[in-house]
Amino acid sequence: MPAPGPHFHFKKFFSNRCIFLEYHLYFILIPGTKEKHSQRVRIMSRWSLGKIERQKLLARYLAGNPFLTDEDLAQIFGVSIQTIRLDRWEMHIPELRERIKDVARGVYGQVKTLRRDEWIGELVDLELGRQGISVLTVSEEMTSQNSTVARGHYIFAQANCLAVALIDTRVALTGTAKISFKRPVYKGEKIVARAYISRKKGNKFIVRVTSKVREETIFQGKFLVFAIA
After folding, report:
1. What is the phi-psi region of residue 16: left when phi exceeds 0, alpha when psi lies from -120 to 50, beta otherwise?
2. pLDDT over threshold 90, residue 112
């Protein structure tokens, strides 16, 4: 058990003859928000966490963050990946890839500046003229030779595509970009990029993009995008 600190507390209490430990942990559950929301979560041993309660919490987590993998959920609940998969099957919740497709259905039809085959990453949410989210899973083809590190131009391209897609026009081009890579990204990691238009003047748009792996920022960019037609 971790030592008590500023973001940790617990209390023991009896319920149905079981002892539960209640932790105060922090998770970002709502995509698109900048601030961390505190969420009181019961972390219980496998024998004490009932199946019904676990499945209720599982549904809540996925409602707040549909990008959580089975591995993420298994770690959160302290159970095996197979248990999470069985829970999803019983609750008729599809796997991550299918959830992304469900979320993305109809979103691409809103984009005016890019064709579907021009995308780097999967567009999963879009408010044209305001904000959007895309997801990119690093494959072997995206890594450097003799390593599992993703090439930077894929990370940049995901962010740039998303920035351009926000513009409500037929043709938009990136004029300048100020970018920062925070850490290497490796094969198999899932990059979630979130972008929003921070300023507009005439046909010029400032778009800010933050890309994360889980909750760790790996890329930030400020794009000046021009609406041409």
Report:
1. left
2. no
